[in-house]
Write a structure and sequence with these properties.
InterPro entries: DUF4834 (IPR032272). By secondary structure, the protein is an all-alpha fold. About 55% of the residues lie in helices and about 0% in strands.
Length: about 80
């Protein structure tokens, strides 16, 4: 009898938790999404400096690549695979 009562209470509790989760989780996630969008909007607004239109600003120029193999090392020989 105790096992039957435990199972009945457990099923009722799980059903109630599931119902509440369906109601409150979407509202919670929507609030989190709205907050993240507002923060993203603020960051985008703060990052855009007032520049004249048509101007380009380069923040990073990669270093020039050095040729690791000198030209005097030899020539590349093309080959074919023989099966």
């Amino acid at each position: 009898m105790i096992l039957l009562r435990f199972l009945l209470v457990a099923i009722c509790v799980l059903y109630i938790v599931r119902s509440l989760a369906r109601i409150f989780l979407p509202m919670l996630f929507q609030g989190m999404i709205n907050k993240a969008q507002q923060q993203q909007h603020k960051q985008n607004y703060q990052q855009q400096p007032n520049r004249p239109e048509g101007r380009i600003k380069v923040d990073y120029i990669p270093p020039a690549k050095k040729n690791t193999v000198p030209d005097s090392e030899g020539d590349f020989i093309d080959y074919e695979e023989v099966k």
